[in-house]
Amino acid sequence: ELDLDYLERRGEHAREPRGPPPETEASPDSMDLVKVILLGAPAVGKTSIVQQFVWNDFSEEYLPTDQKHTYYPSVIINDHLYELKISDIPVIPYFPVNSYYEWTDYRFYGLRSATAYVLVFDLSNADTFQYIRTLRDQMLESRDMRNVPLLVVGNKQDLIVSSSEKRRDIVNLVKKHWKCTYVECSAKYNWRVVAVFKELMKAVDCLETGQANKEVCSPIMDNLHDALDRNKCSIL
């Protein structure tokens, strides 16, 4: 795994936890806006992952997400500057099959227009994987996912004392059958949280640069890991 070139925040005040920026906050025109949505069952740690990434902060108190929160970190990968619009939304019972249901049931969530998705489950609770498995199936049925990166994250790695057959089956399914990037992390201890977004941005950058150069970048990220291991990523 590559080391980051450097890790910074936008201003000293950004090191302290603060409320999410208002939804109307404008994004710089000079950057490519990458719309990322985190999805997962209740209490899997979606909010904790985002807040560790953006603020280096973790709260022991569990507060269910009851409304959409948006974060705007900036990332440099391969000398290309991106601004991420990371949306942390309440748990959804299903992925909208079309724009009508998105408008009536999930207005302003931007579910069907996301650039990339992060599907999070709890490594200590295998049932939470079934939730994202169902969501993924619905996503594939209802929108074109050929050029939409999908990252699967197993959180709460600190609660795992040994490997299990069920865990190995999950990893095998995600990597070999779904052809998705898989990352395990611990939001509580800030272990591999940066790796989550670094792997995501590798896939995004591959698609962006591949399309710009008229090159083919596998729509399902097949055999992507070896080629991308040479890339470098920085977070602002």
TrEMBL record:
InterPro entries reported in the protein's UniProt record: P-loop_NTPase (IPR027417), Ras-like_GTPase_Reg (IPR052661), Small_GTPase (IPR001806)
Biased composition (Basic and acidic residues): 1-18
Source organism, top-level taxon: Eukaryota
SUPFAM superfamilies: P-loop containing nucleoside triphosphate hydrolases
Pfam families listed in its UniProt record: Ras
Region ranges (Disordered): 1-28
GO MF annotations in UniProt: GTP binding; GTPase activity
Protein name: Ras-like protein family member 10B
Organism lineage string: Eukaryota, Metazoa, Ecdysozoa, Arthropoda, Hexapoda
